[in-house]
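User: Please fill in residues for this 160-position structure.
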C-alpha cells in the first residue's frame, strides 16, 4: 500500500471531497506548468463546462518557489481572462493538498517528484520559465488541450 502521509490530513483515508474526485497537477516547484493546469481546469469547472463539475483541481510541488511565475500569470490574464492571484492560487507543497484521486505530472525531465503513489499520467511538458511569451503561449495551449480531455479520460464528456 502506498504511503499517503505526505498529503494533507483531511484526505488521508481518501474521503470524498464534496463528492468530487481530486485531480492534482504536480511538478517540482509548483510555480508555472502545474499552476497553469490548475487555473485552466478550475476555469472550465467554474464556467460549467460539461464533465468538469465531477472534479476538484489542485496543484503542488515537492519544493516551493516564492510566487507563481509572473509570465504565466500575466499571459493567462491577458489571453484567457484568468486571474490566478485573484482566485487565491499560490505555490503549495504536496503536504498542503488533499490526497489526489488522480495525479498528473507536468513532466520532470530526469527526476520526477515522489508523491507517495504512482502518477496517473505524465504530460512531459517543457518548462517555459525563462523563455519568450511564445514559449509560454505554446505551453498554455498544450496544457489546455490536455486539460480538456480530463473528463473523458477519468469520467464524463470532454470539453470539446
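Assistant: Residues filled in for all 160 positions:
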Amino acid at each position: 500500500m502506498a504511503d499517503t502521509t505526505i498529503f494533507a490530513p483531511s484526505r488521508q483515508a481518501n474521503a470524498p471531497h464534496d463528492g468530487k474526485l481530486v485531480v492534482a497537477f504536480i511538478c517540482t516547484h509548483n510555480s508555472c506548468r502545474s499552476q497553469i493546469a490548475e487555473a485552466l481546469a478550475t476555469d472550465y469547472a467554474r464556467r460549467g463546462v460539461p464533465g468538469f463539475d465531477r472534479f476538484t483541481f489542485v496543484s503542488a510541488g515537492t519544493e516551493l518557489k516564492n510566487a507563481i511565475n509572473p509570465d504565466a500569470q500575466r499571459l493567462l490574464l491577458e489571453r484567457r481572462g484568468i486571474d490566478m492571484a485573484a482566485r487565491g492560487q499560490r505555490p503549495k507543497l504536496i503536504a498542503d493538498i488533499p490526497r489526489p484521486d488522480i495525479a498528473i505530472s507536468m513532466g520532470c525531465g530526469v527526476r520526477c517528484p515522489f508523491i507517495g503513489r504512482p502518477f496517473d499520467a505524465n504530460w512531459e511538458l517543457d518548462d517555459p520559465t525563462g523563455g519568450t511569451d511564445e514559449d509560454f503561449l505554446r505551453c498554455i495551449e498544450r496544457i489546455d488541450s490536455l486539460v480538456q480531455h480530463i473528463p473523458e479520460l477519468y469520467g464524463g464528456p470532454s470539453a470539446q
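For context: Residues 1-16 have pLDDT under 50 and may be disordered.
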